[in-house]
Amino acid sequence: ANKEFTGNPRRQLAKLFEVSLKLTVPDEPNVEPLIEPGKFGDYQCNNAMGLWSIIKGKGTQFKGPPAVGQALIKNLPSSEMVESCSIAGPGFVNVVLSAKWIAKSIENMLVDGIDTWAPTLSVKRAVVDFSSPNIAKEMHVGHLRSTIIGDTLARMLEYSKVEVLRRNHVGDWGTQFGMLIEFLFEKFPDSDSVTETAIGDLQMFYKKSKLRFDLDPEFKEKAQQAVVRLQGGDPVYRKAWAKICEISRNEFAKVYQRLQVELEEKGESFYNPYIANVIEELSSKGLVEENEGARVIFVEGFNIPLIVVKSNGGFNYASTDLTALWYRLNEEKAEWIIYLTDLGQQQHFHMFFKAARKAGWLPDDDKTYPRVNHVGFGLVLGADNKRFRTRANEVVRLVDLLDEAKDRSKAALIERGKDKEWTPEELDQIAEAVGYGALKYADLKTNRLTGYTFSFDQMLNDKGDTAVYLLYAHARICSIIRKSGKDIDELKKTGKIALDHAAERALGLHLLQFAETVEEACTTLLPNVLCKYLYYLSEEFTKFYSNCQVNGSAEETSRLLLCEATAIVMRKCFYLLGITPVYKL
Ligand code: ARG
């Protein structure tokens, strides 16, 4: 296929304008092209005004920004992709793309596959640290956000050819293990006899041992010694610890499997052997000071210091995170490290990032690689606008949410009589795809920095901006193609697309903006950007379908190919959002 059809108009235009900028203002070689989706044309180039303010004092031949814009147009290399350019307002260059070129790009994608549209990021390897629940505590709805948003970011980076280390930084180390282990010994003197069913509900187990810890000073004493033994490597204690972790791990794995999320566990304990050396390195750089018995790092902009060694000599969350960062940069050679937790932990992240910059591990700005980002998110709220809880005011368990999402979508399918059309297995699979998809999409479509109100009724609505609506839209497109009776794979190879109707052209252009949308969602770390794109895609499709007859029309081949391209892009969006597409609904 022609190299010029890369399926990323924004980038391709930027390349053309880069050439034009060099010709127009040869004395300003470092000006980067500013290309955006346009208000009047398909795209606009916004360089003229900024350039003018740079060159006007330097005796330029140009008489103002519009003249600079004119020159940018004149110097633009000729290209199949550009239909026309014009100047608007104070000097914006509007670009109208060629409908032929848009059509050709889509034809190429249909032949070569949607992966040829994947953006290329300049990063080779990234760590996404997400989900990361705490051992012996149940995963709750806050971990749901971390899991869902983190998985989507990982998928988008992977699609953009970045190698992603998907890290589950589980809380498997720390003082709570003293009481858990002592409690375990009381109940099961022989830790080999501990089975999952014996402990049963780990959350209950945690609660009971905590109660014991708070009420019984003798138990508390033992628990504190247990921590020392565990951290000192006592094999009996290590074994009990490993057992508790294993039971938790199996519970987490069930949730990940249902959500179809891949994660590799490297918990806090993994970094423990390296902490002392890392703190030593930071000390030798003069960063660590004594403060009220603890050892701390003072970082600019915060009125409290970052504690890296507690007054009892133990390490903490921050020392572990500094060590994990060191490991990821030096041992794993990651260039971009992305952390997902709720915004409540923002200060922790910003403080240890600052400490790492002070140590010279990271550049001072947060755009140059190696780069770290805390991807924070807001709370999930209940109908009462307070933190989402059960009626009994307990934390909402993730498994219960998944069950309910599935049950409700199954009931809705049965109401539509699908139990008569489909096998029980199909019903089950589709209920899961719809139910879990709805749960994920409702989370991903809001800007993560704000919280959202959890509502099954809303997320499972088949109208509006919901996964259910989108899954239906996709299934409807599949059915249009099926009903044509045409072999779409054959058509793809030879068929031609024409974008003569305005609605066809608008749909075609939107399809072609898929890659740059993924790129934007990656660089801004905002998955809602992709959700918005997907929702608009379904709207553009609806406009097209209500204006242009597909089956039985003179333009049938071209229009079926547009249907197919839309279905392919929708499926890729679903995939990137972790949603399983459905072909009939
Ligand atoms: N275990 C922590 C929690 O549940 C989240 C860990 C996030 N990752 C990290 N590297 N600190 O709150």
Structural notes for this entry:
The protein folds into four domains: 89 residues, Gyrase A, domain 2 (2-Layer Sandwich), CATH 3.30.1360; 156 residues, 3-Layer(aba) Sandwich (Rossmann fold); 84 residues, no CATH class; 177 residues, Isoleucyl-tRNA Synthetase, Domain 1. Helix 1 packs across helix 3, helix 8 packs across helix 9 and helix 20 packs antiparallel against helix 22. The chain is flat, with a radius of gyration of 28 Å. The model has no long low-confidence stretch (mean pLDDT 94). A five-stranded parallel beta sheet has the order 7-6-5-11-12, with helices on both faces. The chain has 585 residues and is of the alpha/beta class. It has 23 helices and 14 strands. The site of arginine has 10 residues, from helix 12 and strand 11.
Give the key terms.
585 residues; alpha/beta; Gyrase A, domain 2; Rossmann fold; 4 domains; five-stranded parallel β-sheet; four-stranded antiparallel β-sheet; 54% helix; binds arginine
In short:
The protein is of the alpha/beta class and 585 residues long. Helices cover 54% and strands 11% of the residues.
In the sheet with the most strands, the strands line up as 7-6-5-11-12
Relative strand content: 5-15%
How many domains is the backbone divided into?
4
What is the rounded Rg?
28 Å
- Morphology: flat
- The chain-level mean pLDDT equals 94
- Put simply, the count of helices is 23
The CATH architecture of the largest domain is Orthogonal Bundle
The number of E-state strands comes to 14
Largest sheet: 5 strands, parallel
The distinct ligands, each listed once, are:
arginine
Tell me the span between the first and last alpha carbons: 36 Å
